[in-house]
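Weekly puzzle thread! Below is a chain. First person to post its structure in token form gets bragging rights.
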Amino acid sequence: MTSKLSVPPEVMQQVAEYFSVLGEPMRLRLLHLLRDEEKCVQDLVSETATSQANVSKHLKVMLQAGILRRRTEGTSAYYSIEDDLIFELCSLVCDRLASRIEAQAQHFRAFSGSSRSS
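Winning reply:
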């Protein structure tokens, strides 16, 4: 039997923190809004219909995680995607969820079809 290399707890912590960034629906909304173009904070506030403090808090988390980049122009802060891999992760998760939902739908259809013929 081959022994697995021990993964340091610090590495596990960093991986968990990266995934936790995606665990917040508002962050996913912001990522979706930033997918195709850079936007300023005011635009993101308007498009999410939430407070500037809330948007800024979530942007800061994603910036610190290396997912976003920030630039300033005058008094405005602009955000864009730094790490496109985030969309590959989201796509994998969405595809998995869609497959599960489709399988569940087939079970419901089978059940409803079998109850009619009884």
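Puzzle host: Confirmed. Bonus trivia for everyone else. The radius of gyration is 20 Å.
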